[in-house]
């Protein structure tokens, strides 16, 4: 689930590889593996102690346990979890070494929203018809929206991760990069044990501590997991009904889903659209977009109403185009990667019956990795905050690109081009004093 509090959200590169192949139906609900033996403690990394006043891992862990007890966790639960609360430098190394990969939206969506995953989503909606109907009635979240996240996050339970959750959480808590966040997540995991939802040795998931078939962080598990099958436990690892109800609860109440409203629809944009308005921060009534020449892909007119919407161009004006509604904010909150969130919204629309998106009329040019990094460096020199200079087109980089496109009189569709890079290179060269060699 939603690793919305930090950018790694389910390490997309790993999922892209592990979910690339279609899985047979028999693999989608594999029985839980035998409970592992409690791991042995490993030597903590000295570098992590700097943000804990030099405290060793053991002293740090004792303090976390005290905080958990103060938050209401029983000593029984703490004792049950203790053999699993060990440090693993390998987890910290993964966190520090993770790379968000740059990829064209059409490539990513083509794989992750492939027909087999759409069909699996539709099959699961039929298989769990009662739970989906109940969730839609209680929370207002359509089955296709839940099924799309379920498919993307774990292929309906087939790929939930294979690392001990408590070890991952406490290792990241001791590390200084996001210590406070993961201390809170560790305490939440102890609460999950305390209320009887999961045993410590059942808590197996991703390296970042996410659990279950829609990959909930423990804090979200505590706050939004519900018992939908009536067995007295909130079990997001093994119960499809609990997965459905809990995911709907989080989307509705955590991400503020608007009942009865759309989320994402493919559109066709005219060649003379005011590109500076094509941004998630700009909302216009559908009637205004219709007057600007925006239609559905087959040429049908948009409804001439006042429903606010944004035009989303994940690959610029020559790539796919979407009408993003207020509910699309739930997707960007679930995962702030624009490629992931757009793919999730698109997959949900496909599960709900929408046709596949049109292919671009011509290949969309993408700047090579090194040139995109150079563009980010030039944007920083121009005064923009693009976040990390990593050769990946994130939201901050897109906003900076749009601003510079406007400055140079280029179509402001937020897509970096060779022309924009050339303009910025030229501008930088002109600004250098005579005799300076770059």
Automatic annotation (TrEMBL):
The protein, known as: Lytic murein transglycosylase
Domain named Transglycosylase SLT: residues: 56-348
Matching InterPro entries: Lysozyme-like_dom_sf, MltB-like, MltB_2, Peptidoglycan-bd-like, PGBD-like_sf, PGBDSf, SLT_2
Domain Peptidoglycan binding-like: 371-424
Domain of life from the UniProt record: Bacteria
Signal sequence interval, chain numbering: 1-29
Keywords, sorted A to Z: Signal
NCBIfam families named among the record's database cross-references: MltB_2
């Amino acid at each position: 689930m939603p690793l919305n509090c930090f950018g790694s959200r389910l390490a997309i590169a790993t999922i892209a590889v592990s979910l690339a192949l279609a899985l047979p139906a028999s693999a989608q609900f594999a029985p839980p593996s035998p409970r592992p033996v409690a791991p042995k403690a490993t030597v903590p990394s000295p570098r992590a102690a700097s943000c804990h006043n030099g405290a060793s891992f053991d002293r740090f862990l004792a303090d976390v346990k005290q905080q958990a007890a103060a938050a209401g966790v029983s000593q029984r639960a703490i004792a049950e979890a203790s053999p699993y609360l060990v440090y693993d430098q390998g987890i910290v190394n993964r966190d520090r070494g993770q790379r968000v990969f740059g990829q064209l939206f059409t490539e990513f969506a083509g794989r992750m929203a492939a027909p087999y995953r759409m069909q699996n989503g539709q099959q699961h909606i039929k298989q769990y018809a009662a739970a989906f109907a109940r969730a839609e009635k209680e929370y207002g979240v359509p089955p296709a929206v839940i099924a799309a996240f379920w498919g993307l996050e774990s292929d309906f339970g087939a790929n939930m991760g294979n690392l001990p959750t408590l070890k991952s959480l406490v290792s990241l808590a001791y590390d200084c990069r996001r210590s406070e966040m993961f201390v809170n997540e560790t305490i939440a995991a102890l609460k999950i044990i305390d209320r009887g939802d999961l045993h410590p040795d059942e808590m197996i998931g991703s390296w970042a501590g996410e659990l279950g078939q829609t990959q909930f962080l423990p804090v979200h598990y505590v706050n939004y997991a519900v018992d939908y099958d009536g067995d007295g436990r909130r079990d997001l690892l093994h119960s499809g009904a609990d997965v459905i109800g809990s995911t709907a609860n989080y989307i509705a109440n955590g991400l503020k889903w608007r009942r009865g409203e759309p989320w994402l629809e493919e559109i066709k944009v005219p060649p003379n659209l005011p590109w500076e308005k094509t941004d998630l921060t700009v909302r216009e009534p559908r009637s205004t977009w219709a007057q600007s020449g925006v239609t559905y892909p087959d040429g049908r007119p948009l409804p001439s109403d006042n429903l606010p919407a944004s035009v989303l161009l994940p690959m610029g004006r020559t790539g796919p185009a979407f009408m993003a509604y207020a509910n699309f904010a739930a997707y960007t909150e679930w995962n702030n990667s624009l490629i992931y969130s757009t793919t999730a919204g698109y997959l949900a629309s496909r599960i709900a019956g929408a046709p596949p998106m049109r292919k671009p009329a011509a290949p969309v040019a993408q700047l090579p990795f090194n040139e995109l990094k150079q563009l980010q460096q030039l944007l920083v020199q121009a005064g923009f905050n693009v976040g990390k200079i990593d050769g990946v087109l994130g939201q901050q980089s897109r906003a900076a690109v749009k601003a510079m496109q406007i400055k140079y009189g280029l179509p402001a569709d937020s897509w970096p081009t060779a022309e924009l890079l050339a303009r910025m290179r030229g501008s930088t060269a002109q600004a250098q004093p005579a005799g300076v060699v770059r």
